[in-house]
Design brief:
heterodimer, A: mainly alpha, two-stranded antiparallel ribbon, 21 helices, elongated, B: alpha+beta, 4-stranded antiparallel β-sheet, 13 helices, 11 strands, globular
């Protein structure tokens, strides 16, 4: 019996572990019941995270600080290769601090990416930022609205916006990647092959059931474009949002909706090298509704109203140039009623002409594409209708905008990033789009003619 | 010497018999095999190579450093504690020989383990990335800075001219002169819109023809934000009609590499690089004088660089061994271990110590420092100079970054850390051990 004491101690230890283990579930439930945490308590934590958070105790803060200092120094010295690993360790040391995940995701997608000249290098870092937030940050903090917001922001601003000069590459590569998941702009939700559904969930964290809900509420969306993903993540984050996050996520929703309405339908033909994001006119009513709901919910937010006004002004132009006159007139009336201004005290046609002239002075790439595609479609439409004069007029408009825009972007480097596709290529796309809408063979036959 | 070797042999045999070597080998193997499976690179082959080398060899040197400290501290102290040393000192062996034997045993053990770990790391790196073309990443390039722009004479002229006109700002003359120097230096390394600057590089030992050349540059932009700046990089002798040209739309604050055809190097080992700011919007490119523009030239093989890196690491371990054996020959094992750890910590906070040496008012809040401040200042200055030989960069950084570890660096580490610092510690250790009374009653 000389080991009696040791045996008793071992038994005590085993009993202690058993009691602690059996209390785990009730404690987790109590945390949920009393709303002691904003996110779901972590279960089945990976061993590395469990080790760092429990075994290192208070020391993990010191280690995280040291790693953070090293990371900053390396970034300053231009030594980027280690930064992914350091960000991984820092976030794993403090896995429930959303701001740590948010910082590192943003740092990689924004700060590090822009230090590179090559678009492939930049894209790699934007992907690293997305991956950190989407695949890791949200796994450990599924209830943190801030992380949804940060993730959505990368899609909305970094990829969909044009502040980064390489945004065209990001859009193209993202479209190529997502295009491999399903044929066309969105999956056939009822018949997604299991392997595809699994890839969507595992690689892109896209849940087809949730996508379908988003589609019902905000669609039809083109998931090959980043706006759809900004909407998806903002929508998912909204259920956890409180305080300022609510407004931020609502903003992301209606801004991305507006973006998708004006730039959310992809014409892509990899064989021809065609990649044009044009307006998704079906989304305009839903984008309007999203704005209206947000303004009603936040009456004091003047920024929302000014965004709404700008959206309506652009929507009128886009609808008019796409020959959706009734809808353009409807929005024009709405705009006049909500935001009275001197420039609106005239007919729709006179307003459009004034805006066109103003528009040409300081037009951006996406507006130019919208404008040209709209004018070209109008041109083909009127040609199909047998009105060659009108067709000629719209063709002339498209040519003027294209020429005006490219006049200041003729250098190869700038033309590659911010330029427009050749006019002939856009014209061909417009002809195909119009042809699909036509019913009669006679009208279709008129489109065989060369461009007016 | 044969006695020293015999003691070293016994120390090694003891280490093997007590399974220290087996445990160390196991730990090293785990580090070499497991780390590459868990470490994330930046997604590029080059990044993977760098991160593997940096972390795997980093873990190896860390394990060996800790083991050396522990084993060094234990080498003599446990023999004293267990009274085995009583048998030794009765034999015709000097205590200095005992000290040297223990240290040499550690050194040989470290050399063997380091060589094994280095070879295994290299083999695993080759194996892991066997599908990739590693030739462009496994390199050892000398980093050459541009010939400094002569500003001293101009600075003095400006100073004298201002003095003659009575336009010197108030303040001590040496500070005014330094301010003029800084201004001129900044002008010399800045490129305003529409202008170009010339950087001349003298490559020591003209490289063999055909060896890859590259220009590495980094600049700050006078504009806020990170909008890229358009520039034109031209390399080659100024009178050459076919100079290499590369227009770049380049991001400020990033580190950029441009490969230059080896033919652009002049026969006397000179390389001229012109950078023209061709950005359409007025913006100034500002380069740091030291690392703003550098030339990288392949000088030796990666394998040779790896050997040099391991030699530097071995020198550092040799010093750690000397330090630990010395402390262990004075104190008992726990005290020795804590003391050695403290000494190592001091050696690794050189940057902080340097900052402290510039502080005068350490305790006091008044204008004049007190006696304690003065005393602390002296201690910090002393500590800083004492630990200065150990403030050298980690050899793994250049190895992983593909930069040359020059023999001169290996030599300076050998001289300062092993011969000078290690020798001083050894002499101190032998002297203290010699004076230590071993037969004291408990």
């Amino acid at each position: 019996m000389k080991h009696f004491g040791a045996i008793v101690l071992v038994l005590l230890a085993v009993t202690g572990f058993w009691v602690a283990g059996s209390m785990q579930q009730p404690l987790l439930q109590a945390r949920r019941d009393f709303h002691l945490t904003r996110g779901e308590p972590l279960e089945n934590t990976p061993p590395m995270v469990a080790f760092t958070t429990v075994a290192l105790g208070g020391f993990r803060g010191i280690i995280a600080d040291w790693l953070w200092l090293r990371s900053s120094q390396l970034q300053q010295d231009g030594k980027y290769f280690e930064l992914v690993q350091l960000a991984d360790w820092i976030t794993k040391l403090e896995p429930r601090m959303a701001q740590v995940w948010a910082f590192h995701g943003w740092n990689m997608a924004y700060n590090i990416s822009v230090l590179f000249n090559e678009p492939t290098d930049r894209w790699r870092w934007v992907r690293q930022g997305i991956g950190l937030l989407r695949d890791e940050g949200l796994k450990y903090n599924p209830g943190e609205a801030r992380l949804y917001r940060e993730l959505g922001w990368i899609y909305q601003h970094k990829m969909s916006g044009n502040s980064d000069q390489m945004n065209v590459y990001y859009k193209r590569w993202w479209a190529d990647e997502i295009g491999e998941l399903f044929d066309g702009p969105r999956p056939d939700y009822k018949n997604i092959p299991p392997d595809r559904a699994q890839r969507m969930k595992e690689l892109y964290k896209l849940d087809p059931a949730l996508m379908e809900q988003v589609e019902r509420e905000f669609g039809p969306l083109d998931w090959r474009l980043p706006q759809a993903h900004a909407i998806y993540w903002a929508w998912r984050g909204k259920r956890y949002a409180t305080g300022f996050d609510v407004i931020q996520l609502e903003r992301m929703l209606f801004q991305s909706m507006a973006d998708a309405a004006l730039q959310g339908e992809l014409f892509s033909n990899p064989v021809e090298g065609v990649f044009i994001a044009g307006p998704n006119l079906a989304l305009i009513p839903k984008a309007r509704r999203a704005y209206e709901q947000a303004i009603a919910a936040n009456p004091g937010e003047s920024g929302m109203q000014s965004g709404h006004r700008n959206f309506l002004r652009t929507a009128i132009m886009v609808l008019y140039t796409h020959h959706r006159l009734a809808e353009a007139r409807d929005i024009f009336d709405d705009l006049r009623q909500r935001y009275p201004a001197a420039e609106l005290n005239q007919s729709l046609e006179a307003y459009i002409f004034g805006r066109m002239t103003e528009f040409l002075r300081d037009v951006g790439q996406r507006e130019a594409i919208d404008m040209i595609m709209g004018a070209l479609q109008q041109s083909w439409f009127w040609l199909a209708m047998g009105d060659e004069d009108q067709a000629q007029g719209f063709q002339q408009l498209a040519r003027s905008v294209w020429r005006e825009y490219m006049q200041t972007r003729y250098e190869k480097e700038i033309a590659e990033r911010a330029g427009l596709p050749p006019l002939e290529q856009m014209s061909e796309q417009a002809r195909e789009a119009v042809k699909k809408q036509l019913q009669s063979d006679a009208a279709k036959a008129r489109l065989v003619k060369p461009a007016p | 010497m044969s006695k020293v070797l015999a003691i070293a042999g016994i120390a090694i045999r003891n280490a093997i018999r007590s399974r220290v070597v087996v445990v160390l080998l196991g730990l090293l193997l785990v580090a070499i095999i497991a780390l590459p499976l868990t470490i994330k690179g930046d997604g590029t082959v080059g990044g993977t190579v760098q991160v593997l080398l940096r972390y795997t060899l980093g873990a190896v040197t860390l394990i060996l450093s800790i083991a050396t400290l522990w084993a060094g501290c234990a080498a003599i102290s446990t023999e004293v504690q267990e009274r085995q040393v009583h048998l030794l000192v009765t034999k015709p062996v000097y205590r200095a020989q005992l000290w040297l034997g223990k240290w040499l045993g550690l050194l040989i053990l470290n050399a063997g383990l380091l060589a094994l770990a280095g070879a295994a790391t290299y083999a695993l790196l080759r194996w892991d990335l066997r599908q990739e073309n590693l030739a462009q990443f496994l390199v050892a390039q000398r980093v050459v800075k541009p010939v400094p722009v002569e500003i001293e004479e101009t600075a003095r002229k400006v100073f004298d001219e201002q003095k003659r006109r009575g336009e010197l700002p108030p303040g001590p003359p040496d500070q005014i002169l330094e301010a003029i120097r800084q201004q001129l230096r900044q002008q010399a390394y800045s490129i305003p819109a529409g202008l170009a600057r010339r950087f001349v590089f003298e490559l020591p030992n003209a490289p063999l023809p055909g060896r890859p050349l590259a220009v590495r540059y980094k600049f700050a932009s006078s504009l806020t934000g990170k909008d890229p700046v358009g520039c034109l990089l031209v390399a080659g002798a100024p009178d050459r009609p076919d100079r290499f040209q590369k227009p770049e739309l380049t991001a400020p604050a990033g580190v950029h590499l441009v490969r230059i055809p080896p033919a652009m190097l002049e026969s006397n080992g000179m390389l001229t690089v012109d950078i023209a700011n061709i950005h359409p919007v007025p913006v100034t490119m500002i380069f740091a004088p030291d690392d703003g523009v550098q030339v990288l030239v392949q000088e030796t093989s990666f394998e040779m660089n790896l050997v040099r890196c391991l030699l530097v690491a071995l020198c550092q371990l040799a010093f750690l061994g000397a330090l630990a054996v010395t402390i262990g020959s004075v104190f008992s094992l726990p005290v020795a271990a804590v003391t050695a750890a403290y000494a190592v910590m001091l050696m690794n906070i050189g940057g902080y110590l340097q900052t402290l040496t510039t502080e005068r008012n350490i305790f006091g809040s008044g204008d004049t420092p007190g006696a304690i401040d003065f005393l602390l200042h002296l201690i910090y200055v002393g500590l800083f100079w004492l630990t200065k030989p150990f403030q050298q960069a980690n050899p793994l950084e250049p190895l992983a970054g593909g930069e040359l570890i020059a023999w001169s660096w290996v030599g300076s580490i050998l001289l300062w850390q092993v011969i000078v610092a290690g020798g001083a510690v050894a002499l101190l250790g032998m002297w203290l051990f010699n004076r230590r009374e071993l037969g004291l009653p408990e």
